[in-house]
């Protein structure tokens, strides 16, 4: 039940459950995460960084889009090859199905968080336990996977990823209002707060500023999975 305790910390006091969103849809900042399920750097970002926005109020000013495809590629026969092997293709598709079958953001993010937490612990083969851990119904997700809709979703995500301008170079690839953050992705909240033009920014935004080029170079210790690494 370790996951349950960790996740409650993130979500118990979330503004999603205690207050209406600060921003109207037209004022929200778009936040897109292009990732792959077995990339340790993607998992670390989701578990240790992205999850925080559900607790600190930043979720109220963003439209979050999760795209589980990453550095995979579509072969000439229509099959998909994933950077970290067949198990990654499986989990990419399962997470895509969770997003589709559980459209409420808090629900599918809970599931994805659980799976990626297992990835960090090298226990990803236990991913089905995340349905029990989160209390979510597995039937719709499994139906999506087995009826072929999951494959269609992955092909859609492939096209979405391949259409990125500029093209993505690695994962995690974080995009705020259409602009990639490159290796500054862990500072994504700074960029969200800077981009937000609404009247009531969350308290987290107070005092945050976009780093200078010199500051970025001094603090750059992030890790990524490069697109040209062997598939």
TrEMBL record:
InterPro entries: Interferon-induced_GILT, Thioredoxin-like_sf
Pfam families xrefs: GILT
Domain of life: Eukaryota
Keyword Signal: yes
Signal sequence interval, chain numbering: 1-23
MF terms in GO: oxidoreductase activity, acting on a sulfur group of donors, disulfide as acceptor
Keywords: Glycoprotein, Signal
Record protein name field: Gamma-interferon-inducible lysosomal thiol reductase
């Amino acid at each position: 039940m370790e996951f349950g305790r960790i996740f409650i910390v993130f979500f118990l006091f979330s503004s999603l459950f205690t207050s209406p969103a600060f921003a109207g849809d037209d004022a929200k900042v778009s936040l897109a995460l292009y990732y792959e399920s077995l990339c340790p750097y993607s998992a670390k970002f989701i578990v240790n960084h992205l999850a925080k926005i559900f607790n600190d109020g930043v979720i109220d000013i963003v439209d979050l889009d999760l795209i589980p495809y990453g550095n995979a590629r579509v072969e000439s026969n229509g099959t998909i090859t994933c950077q970290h092997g067949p198990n990654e293709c499986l989990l990419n598709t399962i997470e895509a199905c969770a997003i589709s079958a559980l459209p409420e953001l808090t629900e599918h993010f809970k599931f994805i968080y659980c799976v990626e937490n297992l990835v960090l612990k090298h226990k990803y083969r236990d991913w089905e336990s995340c349905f029990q851990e989160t209390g979510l119904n597995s039937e719709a997700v499994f139906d999506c996977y087995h009826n072929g809709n999951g494959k269609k979703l992955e092909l859609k995500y492939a096209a979405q990823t391949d259409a990125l301008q500029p093209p993505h170079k690695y994962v995690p690839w974080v995009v705020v209002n259409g602009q990639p953050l490159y290796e500054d992705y862990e500072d994504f909240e700074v960029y969200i707060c800077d981009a937000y033009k609404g009247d009531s920014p969350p308290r987290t935004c107070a005092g945050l500023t976009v780093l200078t080029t010199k500051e970025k170079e001094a603090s750059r210790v992030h890790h990524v999975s490069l697109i040209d690494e062997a598939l």
